[in-house]
Batch of 4 targets.
Target 1
Amino acid sequence: MKAIVTVMLKTGVLDPQGKAIGHALGTLGFSGIGEVRAGKVIEIELAETDAAKAQAAAEEMSRKLLANTVIESFKVEIA
Amino acid sequence: MAFRAGIVLFPGTNRERDIAIALAAANGGREPVIIWHKDTTLPPLDLVVLPGGFSHGDYLRCGAMAAQSPVMRAVRDFASAGGHVLGVCNGFQILTEAGLLPGALLRNAGLRFLAQDHHIRVESTDTIYSRGYVQGQSIRVILAHGDGNYAADEETLDRLEGEGRVVFRYSRRDGTVAPDANPNGSARAIAGICSENRRVLGLMPHPEDAVEALIGGEDGKPMFAGLAEALAA
């Protein structure tokens, strides 16, 4: 199975990268750009075949390493 | 009496010589020992330093990989047994990632890597690292970081302030703290904090690069003189 972990800065944490991307989009002529937030996606191949167990494992990985929960939130999808 | 200092080296660390020179100069020429990140035990030490650099290429988050290194288990044990640990720049990032200090260091608010001199105000002299200064004194140190924007929730910030654990704050030359003197957007202009027992200190600026008049200043010297005096006693 594959775990797809999306890590984003928590709401309320300043995201200067997102701000810069939003600004650049405006410069390129795209209109109607609201708030832009940047994060990262981490894909992990897992030997596990049970979706619930894969989900639990990926969540533990996220808490321990992939996300810094002081400033980031994460979401796990199993595919 | 000399003190025993150890410097932890991670792949990508690049300020270990700077800190070694500053420590040796304050310690009668005694060179600190270098500890490799794969080591699982520490020799008998009075001080462990996590120096600046770009450990593991800053992959994932600055300090995230280093915080999981085998040596960090030993550093954590050393700290919980009351050992003194100093983290400078990337070392500060590693200490927060390892949970030895609260909060996190985010990308600089201006998105630019900062390589410049800056002033910081000494907010507390109640650590071995800051006892060589006068409370409220402004000192000129060197910034060299892309991720120095200190962040923590309001409750944590209030606790740090209440317990006098904000040790250094970005300031103007005259010591005033102002938005225009906060180079990276750090919450409450925090440049350095200490642990509850005041023995673990993390700061973003480089005092070890301000120990020689020839290369731009000596304001970092009292940090090393002060800790030498405390640790050798």
Target 2
Amino acid sequence: MDVKIYSFIFTMWILMLVGGGLITLIIGPLSLGSIEGIDPIILSGIKIGLALVLIFIWVFVLTKIKNWIFKSQVKS
Amino acid sequence: MEEKIIVAIIVSAIAFFSIYAFTPVLIKFLEKRNLTVKDVNKIGDVMIPRPGGISIMIGIVTSEIMLYLFFPISEILAIIITSVLGFSVGIIDDKKTMGGWFKPLALAFCAAPILLLGAYDSNLNFPLFGSVQIPSLYLALVVFMIPITGNTINSVDALNGIASGVTTIASFALAISLFILQNYEIGIACLCLAFASLAFYKYHKFPSRIFPGDSGAVMFGATYGAIAIVGQVEVIAAIAILPAIINSFLFLSSVKKIVEHRQIKNPVKHTDDFKLKSTDENHAPITLVRLLIAKNPLSEKQISNEVLKLTMFSGVLAVITAFMMGVKI
């Protein structure tokens, strides 16, 4: 069995752990202290936006890995 | 604790033996009424009865109702109703092939019992780093979770034994994780799913004697998703079915839209000795199976075994994650 697919699963796991850390430690407690009286809904929207950016980066990285695995499998 | 162990044994036995005993009866019933489909990966016209979802529904619902009699909590009731609704969505798709958007939309409504019974906690728990409170956003997560798990399990139901095998391994990993996190009632509910899928795997493994159909595969996924939500183990549940998630991810990132799997180009073809090999079609999606056979053609049984090995690997990662839930950095 090719170790690359196991590595792919392992990478997904690490990305989930790291993503969880970023959400709980950075994005969750985020407050725009310098801007007075910001609407909580707007703040939540900003946090959702940041989480979506994280998901986009996550999917982008995994797509690159997937393409690399498939091409290397076909070539070998 | 002793009472919980006895209940776990009783409901697990009901889940396993009801499916083990009823499935052969269902096979004969479906064959008699000519409710069969061609197994496309076998030489000749091998016809297999479908859907086996009826047997799966009886096993899961009977055992979960029995569990509810012992522990009458809203979480177990939510699991039962969500499972039945998931089965209903699948059986409609079994009877009449619906469009690509039907199942995700219909399954989103299957999350209603969880929301209406309040059987969820709006904290999303992550290993090592604690949890985030997302009251409004969590409602959206509940609505998305059931279509994701339902479709994810359904999308791996491409070869003999994979859907039931993946559900069995992932459910056992999730049940162990729930016991580690001392969520015993939901852990026992997860054991019902694990033993039900194990019993069905006996008939679904290569060479299949019955196919679960959309009703069986979607019900497996919907029940799994409901357990993940009411048990507050969403992240662990996602990790345990990573190979199936990878399959959906690979499919969506290749096709770039939600379509019924019957509408796309077959990503695999057969060799002369009926092994599966990757197609040369550039537009065919890269699925997990196509990734596994990109290097060399493999038999259906070999591919099924490889997918189950990958699921065991992700199941181990899920259990490790459960241990990490208790650690804070």
Target 3
Amino acid sequence: MSSSKGVNDRSISLFPEPYRPDATPYKVKDFHASVRNLASSNKTGSIGLQMSKCIVVGDVAVGKTCLVNRFCNEVFDKDYKATIGVDFEVERFEILNTPFNLQIWDTAGQERFKCIAAAYYRGAHVVIIVFDLTDKFTLEHAEVWHAEAVKEMKEAAFLFLVGTKKDICEEREFKEMEEKAVKLAKKLDAEFWAVSSLTNENVEHFFCRVASMAFNDVMKKSQEDETDGKATKKVIAADSSLISLKPETGAKDDEKKSCCSS
Amino acid sequence: MNSLEKAVTQQIMRERKNSEREEMVNAILPWDKFSQWLHCICVVTFDLELGQALEFIYPSHIKLSDKEKMNICYLSFPDSNSGCMGDTQFNFRIRQTSGKVNHHLLVRRKEYDRNSPVILQSDPAHLFGFVYFRQVKDKSSRRGYFQKSVVLLSRLPYINLFTELVELIAPEFFDKGEELIEAACHDIDQWSNPVPGDTLQLPIMGTVLQVKIPAKGDIKIGALGIARDAVPQPMGSPLTVVPSLHAVETFMCLQPVLPHIQLLWELVLTNEPLVVMGPSPGITCGTVHALINTISPLKYMTDYRPYFTIHDSEFKEYTTRTQGPPPVILGVTNPFFAKTLQHWPHIVRIGESIHAFLDKSKANKPKKPGSLKTLESKPGVYTQYKSFLSKDKTIQKRLAKGIQTRRPYEVQDAMLRRYLLELTQSFMFSLERYVTSLMPLQRNISPWKHPPRLKAFDIEEFLRTVEHSGPQLTSGLKGDWESLYRRFFKSANFQGWFQNREEEINQKLLLLHLEALSEADLLKWCNEREEVEVVDLVLKLRERLNDITERNLPVKPELIQKLHQGTESIIRSLPEDLRGVLEK
């Protein structure tokens, strides 16, 4: 899976906008002031490596793996190969000059693997429900995936509804599907996106939005913990071991890729 | 085609062949990554007709021999019907009797072993089994019980990591079914190869385990502690740091026999036959691993079985009375062994609750082996062995005080490990120094001679050095060190250690010699020699190049190229008839 993995971190400094302002429950427009403060004080790397877990679900053959591969490995493989169980990728970001890892758990859409998904939902910070813009049924079924996620998750997570294969969707068909999807997104309290893994349309933008929202949240929480004073030590202890154990991050930083920022 | 062109073509062909070979090694096939970590996962169930039976093996292309299957089946369940209700974890070790390993796996394994501390090297002849056994009431079953085990098999002695791994997988499997094992195996097939020195993040069932693979020389006092995170990670954290691949909780496991810790250390060091009798497989395997670890960083070279049953295929071999007991360590739970192994010289008996043990007066003296008739006998060490070294009262007092003041286990553990490590290092230090004195001098390495080798180990010569600069200088322990050394020299632990050192040193000498060769002015030397000497040099050069591939020496490609070029240019300088012969 990681044969042609890009080694450059993606760097983000501006908070990415949603696909459609009218199709998102998340009204955040910028990184929280306290997060910016914390990040700018991080010259010494004192915050440590932050990370978030993101799980990708949806019907069989809607293009979950293609979406993840397009973003993480910058490839599009036309041949369909069913995912067994769950594929795993870690994408490195540098947000407000702070290193951030997004774990992406790409699940199998096959019915027989449905029973195992619960184990993988645990602790997810972001849930991405994927459907096929050319297949109404997969959109309708998104509601079932949503119910499943809600049932298994103990903590709140950011929710995204992503329509794929935008490139092979005719315009009229697309308009119709988009309208339906926006409606469903509102109902589920999810943010809607339409993307194409083949042409790379919106893929980069979408994941940067996901990462930024997750990062904003994680940093805010870790700061709240700090001001609370209670859990401070926990966070620092866990993170400090992380940063000391990852000496290779520094070496590869020479050439940073810029995305979603100008 | 002139000879230069020919040489160039040959060089290109050789390079192409090398790169093809490399590509073959680098290509990743399904299950390649998985196989670097695990051999397979088995599920063993209790069948009303058959008894213990293998329900399935994953990945399904893995073939186990009948003997292996039988051993796995028996070792995955408690041996005696001693309860074990609920969930139990333990591990075992069996002889591997099946399967050829594909070439490319072998190459990687060799490379891993070369850079790994000896105690973490992969086991070429055995498989470790990590068991998670569940026994609960189940009305739907005819027997009234649900009894099933998930077993991870591996060649790597990552006791701690795989114990945690099976603990993650098994309960979910009992809940969700076979697909979960399939998915878990797929997760593991995405893990990076275990490369010594690397810190890896291993995705498994929705969480990520972070482990550091120790490199050679990493096993030091600091790295030895289990350092079980004093701060638990927050629930649902996307990352779990596994502090050690292999460490077991030495203090906790050896607490019942703490007063005899030095005696046990001597027994383990000298490969004495030792049996650990305990009430459950969990307890015996903890104790056996802790015993093996007392001599770390030395590797225990003979067989050991953290859990051994009467059904084991080696049962006869190990319990026969026609020969003396074999130099192995066995962990057993079946009361039957109390009788079968009565003749064994050293028996460690561990009770049910290994936590509460403060009865000093009775525990201080080793008991006579004859007094052990049944498994109901009192906990303790049953032996007539007299320690060579006098008892270190300081460590005993410190640990006892820790128990009284309820010092945290981690601290006690670190204290005990440190003590044992220093004891082992004091013992080994004189040996290491002596071996260094067997090294040839740098000036004896000449490109025109054979690579020098380590001189032979002379026991008497070594013991003479002990008299004036032995372990008594660093350890402060009094006693008969010389006799302990003599006993150690007869053991497999010594043989293994020395062989290992010898190989390492000889390899290093080979490398130094190769460097000297590559830096020498070969042509100039040849100009001043007879033809026959020159031919001899060409043959030697070829032999060295052969060494590199055969022994898989870690040599820079530039050096190999330099030697190739050197050989070619010598050949080119020779008269045509000779050239023809040599170029074949």
Target 4
Amino acid sequence: MARTENIAAVFKRGFINENPIMRHVLGICSTLAATNLVANTLVMSAGLVFALSMSCLTVSILRSITPMRIRMMVQTLIIASYVIIVDIIIKAYLPDISEALGPYVGLIITNCIVMGRCEAYARSNPPMPSFLDGLAVGLGYTAVLLIIAIFRESLGFGTIMGYRVMPEGFTTWTVMVMAPGAFFMLGIFVWIVRTYFPQTYEENKGGEKS
Amino acid sequence: MTQIDMPTLFFAAIFTNNILLTNFLGLCPYIAISKNINSAAGLGVAVIFVMTCTAALNHLIYYQVLVPLHLEHFQFIIFIVVIAAFVQVVEMTIDRYFPALYQVLGIFLPLITVNCAILGASLFMIIRDYTLLQSMGYGAGSGTGWLLAITLVGAIREKIQKTGKLPKGLEGPGITLIITGLLSLAFTAFSGLIKIQ
């Protein structure tokens, strides 16, 4: 009983309380580019969730034998290895999406979230909770990106996953699928979240670095 | 791709293909550091330098070492190690020989390893088959474009802090993202001048 509660708590914390986008506005660099189409977002997020949870697991397993001073380098190498796996899989099975995502899959390596979770949680916790933590944070991140992607694709193309959702005569907002649309959407999202859920960022006033 | 000469590519990377405003790269330090224009400019200068050098280094390593050995898949690991090592070396060199410069740039250098724009520039250069000279032009241009964007936003945010009154939820990242959206909209006016895709 206690164990299931524990897992639920880890999930809730990762999914809502420490949601990287709502709380810190971190890790948006590489993945914002993928939110113009829902399909791209799904692939990109799946890659991120895999890389994040597996990196957390590995970092956690190796935590007792990793020398303190070179731990950043070790973490980076672990993350890079998993990102290479993700990249090869996407290239092999989804060549079209791989083409569309371009270099952004590789940029998961420098996504601040992955490093942040390894450093903040996996480094000092046993493997199983670390894995779940990575999974929860990754899924929380995916949820936010999906919301943004759904708005961008339906307003920009009038479709979701390629299916028409807007009525025939709908004038598409081209700006939504271009870069400014992504910034506006994320800005408005952050605004709404911070207005209605102010507790998610209260303790985070200081200079948060990437 | 080879017909674009280096100066053209340099300007294209600043205006039509600004790495921050059109490719979304380097956003985390951008949001965190742009509160004040001086630190924004300091970080920008460090980014230009590191980006130009690592683009050239990664280009050499990719085409001279990885391609002959058929190890292209390891580009991510190699690039990130090169960038981390380069930043470390630069930091030590500046600290040892130019203490005055270290005072200005030193605190920004460790931040640069995790700046996705640096790795992004290297990956774009491989995907678009740039030559060594073009890569350096692209690296320098992207760095300059990043400096331009972060200084502009730093200046606007300073002004807003002095004069404007914002809804509480919009302060900080919210307003920064919306300003960035407007800037990005302004920069789309340049698109079409030079095509480098």
